[in-house]
DNA sequence: GCTGGACATGTCAATAGTGGAAGGTAAGGT
DNA sequence: ACCTTACCTTCCACTATTGACATGTCCAGC
């Protein structure tokens, strides 16, 4: 039931059509949550049926702009504050690490080194992104900044871990 | 197609029945990948049809022990070395952070503080786990140790980030 | 001998998510 | 006028995942 709340959250920030929301998923939120067209339009229909959102305007080309309702805002608050975010239980990269005993130590180090390079690139990208954004003092940008900082720390952690892991393999297996 | 490779990886380490694998998913791998019964037995059937695994023994209670085939090992290697792990694109906790502007700053700090406590608990748990395990020098334990270290670093990163984030909110909004 | 718990596999219905095709409208440039 | 591009929604087929239910066997302790 998370897509539902992602949509509610986006509409709580500002009303928009399915097409608008799709763009927001593809850009600002792409590293946090994603949705495809089919999923999104389906969810909008369900949310409207449940009276958590409503059509606030209609535009050209059949465009329907949705806005969150009071019931929707209340549902969003409940999700934010009363439900515990489940601990993440899937990580494809780590799954591979688990099975790295199936290849040679050299190959395993190669895998980790590629991953480390990727994380290093990400660190730079996020730093550049942060520098390029004009951080005003409004709420949305404050919380977006917290999320961006999380990304930076995550990427740095993976970069350092990958380096350490490759060295550990070398020490243990050559 | 990741469950497929998770199963192949487990069977590459040691043969086992569906029931065995389920236990391994629930314990050793629970923070890395999960699978339910229905998914697992279904996947075992598909993998057998594709000749990536085979029944290596039958036991009491209809038990079928599966073992990986050469084709399966080759598929596993390809997945490990030639496919790029996709960047994670969903994080429910971060999604909530994104929308924290919908609640008061006090509530937002409460959310982050609870999350920080959770991460702190995890750091301790993982440290205890590490201390309790008898790390011999075999391959599986080397790579399991790398994964465990990742978990420790991840939890520590989240703990520190949550603390920083709560302080940042206090500084900006009180 | 019985019984409860662990072992073991299988099916079903429902929801979540992916990818693509189809069908159409509006606006802007040439 | 024409054409391209962006806008916008809807539908469909497929795979992945969850959770519950069904069914039965073996084994240890009483």
UniProtKB/TrEMBL annotation, chains A, B:
Record domain Transcription regulator PadR N-terminal: where: 7-77
Domain (Transcription regulator PadR C-terminal): residue spans on this chain: 90-169
Stored PANTHER family: TRANSCRIPTION REGULATOR, PADR-LIKE FAMILY (PTHR43252:SF2), TRANSCRIPTIONAL REGULATOR YQJI (PTHR43252)
Name of the featured protein: PadR family transcriptional regulator
Species annotation: Amycolatopsis albidoflavus
Family annotation (Pfam families): PadR, Vir_act_alpha_C
Lineage of source species: Bacteria, Bacillati, Actinomycetota, Actinomycetes, Pseudonocardiales
């Amino acid at each position: 039931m998370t897509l539902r709340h992602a949509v509610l959250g986006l509409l709580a920030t500002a009303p928009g059509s399915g097409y608008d929301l799709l763009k927001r998923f593809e850009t600002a939120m792409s590293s946090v949550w994603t949705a495809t067209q089919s999923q999104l339009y389906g969810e909008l229909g369900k949310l409207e049926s449940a009276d958590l959102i409503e059509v606030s305007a209609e535009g050209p080309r059949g465009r329907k702009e949705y806005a969150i309702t009071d019931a929707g805002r209340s549902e969003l608050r409940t999700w934010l504050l009363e439900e515990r975010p489940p601990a993440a239980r899937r990580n494809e990269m780590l799954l591979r690490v688990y099975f790295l005993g199936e290849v040679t130590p050299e190959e395993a180090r190669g895998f980790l080194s590629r991953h480390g390079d990727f994380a290093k690139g990400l660190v730079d990208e996020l730093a550049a992104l942060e520098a390029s954004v004009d951080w005003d003092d409004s709420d949305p940008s404050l919380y977006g900044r917290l999320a961006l900082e999380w990304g930076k720390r995550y990427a740095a952690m993976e970069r350092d871990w990958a380096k350490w892991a490759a060295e550990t393999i070398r020490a243990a297996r050559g």
